[in-house]
Structure prediction request, 394 residues.
Amino acid sequence: MRIFLVGAGAASLYFGIIHSLRSKDDEIFIIEKNEKIASKLYATGNGRCNLGNLNINEYSYNDKEFYDKYAKNLPNELLTFLDSIGVKTTVLNDGYLYPYSLSAKTYADYLIKFLKGKNVKFIHEEFISYEYRKDDKIHIKTSKNEYDGDVLIFGCGNSSSPKFGSDGKLFELFKNHGYIVNQILPGLCKIMIKEKIKDLENERLTATVYLKDKNGKEIYKEEGEVLFKKDSLSGICIFNLASMISRLKIKKCDIYVVPKFPRENFFDINKMVELSKENVLINPLEGIFSHAVAKYIDKEIYHKIKRGSYIYFTEAEDVINFKFTFDSLEGFNNSQVSIGGISKTNLNNFVESKIEKNVYFIGEVVDIDGLCGGYNLMYDFKSAELTSKMIKSL
Prediction:
């Protein structure tokens, strides 16, 4: 059997390894439009390669059916697979899974060498322009050549981070072949806000962030580090809020940032309040926060309670509480994942085309996305594994 994959990203690499181990007689070809393969994998996890996450919950993926059917045991399945091909792992940050080398380059190089050792062939710098059926074969036309195969798998990514090769240009081809493509929006990216916060630029703050509708109803919350820019918010927890905004197609909302610190610190603030009565140069918040954060709170928030008055803990969230107005998401160029893609209504078991025989979709090209923390790479693995199983039964 001749199997062609379009796109040399993580999902295609995983499929190549899984299927070459499962079916030694099948020929596997991976077509990549760029000279370099697996560009996004080399950069993932800030160069350390966040492979997955041991923690799974209802928000980890946008699709409840996928979560219920496959996600709950996915970390164990991934660990078993990685161990079977000789990749050792380590766990950081309470569940984030990394290769023991903490090197995305080492990990990507290892997968590619593994594939080449299994005689998986890479075809570089060819862009697929059309494919059709001829004599029960799949005929593939590229910008340079033509190929006949038995199975065609699209692992071509989506629209995020086009500098790594995935630009969404194939979605027009998919529409022409009758596929429903759900609206594509950026996810896991910075959130642009209407407020100008230059005074906080490049400050970092551990906080609980809340996504609330315009009526103040909580939609989602998460704890993490927030990085402030002059007109936007960043950080892992903010990236996840961005994905929730895209998943739910939210147009208007507010983002609340509540700094995390122990209750007893409010008593410390009150001690400082007493000192500030005698010394007007003292900002009672500078004993806890950085100068920039304390100054911002004092200027924008603290005035709500009379300077020098006692702060009760029940007033804490009203006093030390940053409220920002959502403006937009940063965009595809700097987003880590895309929300939307090939609709699962066109697919059997999330991967097999209902429209065309022996055509499959894996990875980010499908409308299944995960939050920040390795969930998307885990989906790359699972969709590749599901496809290999279905092809083995042909």
Notes: The radius of gyration is 25 Å. Residues 252 and 370 are 22 Å apart (CA to CA).
